[in-house]
Amino acid sequence: MIGLGQNSNCFSGRWLATPPLYFFKQDTATKKKSAPEGKSSAVLDHGKAVRCAYCKTVITYQGNAESMAGKHVHHFTNPGGFEFTIGCYRKAWCRIVGVPTLEWSWFNGHSWQYALCNQCQEHLGWFFQNTQDKTSFYGLILDRLIIEDGSNT
Hints:
Blueprint: H1 41-46, E1 49-52, E2 58-61, E3 73-77, E4 83-89, E5 94-101, E6 110-117, E7 123-130, E8 136-141, E9 145-147
Antiparallel strand pairs: 1-2, 1-9, 3-4, 4-8, 5-6, 6-7, 7-8
């Protein structure tokens, strides 16, 4: 698969900034601990940041990992023969592009669109939406992501 990254001029439009951390609101009544000295509360509340491997922009947090079809990590091959290992996340700060389609969807009943890094426009995975109840999640390509300490997700 050809990457839809920073060298591609396939997509036009505004580059979106990463949303502020208050996007992930936590119920303050259940929050018992405060962040240890030197640690941000975002790390304590949501796990380590999951970043774009190309530009290091925060894409999501480990705490947003989600199990789909019984597991978080999936291995798929697209119709072109390219293999992907993806992780499922309920929230991500990605630019969603393309017309939703059910064709070749890896998740039954879910349409998909491309998910690009908001900063560098690299193709990071796909946005999936259930066609019946409109629930959604992101399937992000794990070798295109890094976590805060630099290891692969």
